[in-house]
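Q: Predict the assembly, please.
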Amino acid sequence: MEPVLRAAAIYLVLMILFRAMGKRSLAQITLFDFVLLLIIGEATQNALLSDDYSVTNGVLVIITLLMVDLGFSLWKEYSPRMEKAAEGTPLVLVEDGKPLDDRIQKERVNNEDIIEAARHQYGLWKMSQIRMAILEKNGGITIIPMELPYVTETIRRELDARLGRS
Amino acid sequence: MLRREMVNEDFRAQLREWRVQRALWILLILILIGALAGAFGGGPLSRAVAGDAAESFWLEYERFGRYKSTSLLKVHAGERTGRTIALRLSNDYLDQIEIERITPEPAWTETFSTHTAFHFAAGAGSTLLATIQFRPKRIGRIHGAAGAGGASLPFAHWVYP
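A: Predicted assembly structure:
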């Protein structure tokens, strides 16, 4: 009984604690986040296995974790409310080139993170080039740029062809 | 025009989430403060005394413990019988703990139906400070009783999982 209860309890506690830390803590972007996750892994190990190093205990813990994870997946599928509670929702951080400062501050993101994502994804370098920046559930930032040059170019060519222009 | 709902934003849910997060942070900080103060063992909140330090027989123990985590029970006793000082611990208590070490080592132990007596060699005029290092085997409240000479003192630990 103990391995199952232990594993289920640790899984639930970790889930709640990481949700309490906010979306960015999942994204593992800085050295601090990486070290933190590494050490948490170590701290969890002893709590999961205690002083029982038998194969049976290990397997029971693994099975419990997988089953709890599966249980939550199924629950999320049937209950959108549960999914929002468990995973959160995307959050718009920049709209039409303007950063929404209170939201950015509340999620402990900074403008530099957003510009970095824009640079990484589209080679953009300033806020005014960003149509929308979204903080996703997994902590990543996705950028919708103001203008996709290749899209406008394609449209222009298509229009020219249909209107008979060269 | 690109609107926020088009990217599945639900701001009301987000506001709820932030409120819950803040509440959890406060709870976590309280837990940390409590832990530092000894609410989970090992600190001022946890240290307890049974009996009177001015008397010859009294105990020092931890009010809070953690499952399978080492804790100490210190017994001060002075009443000699012959060349030994005997410490009695209830069998109910001993069933719920796993003794790792007793310092000093008892010369011999004697088992009775309700308790076990540990006899320590003691020179004339000496008093005993026995330190029992143990790990709780159970979660929840563990009652114990310790006795020496004519006196007996109850005590209890609350053991966290």
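Chain B has two domains: 4-37, 47-160. The mean pLDDT of chain B is 92.
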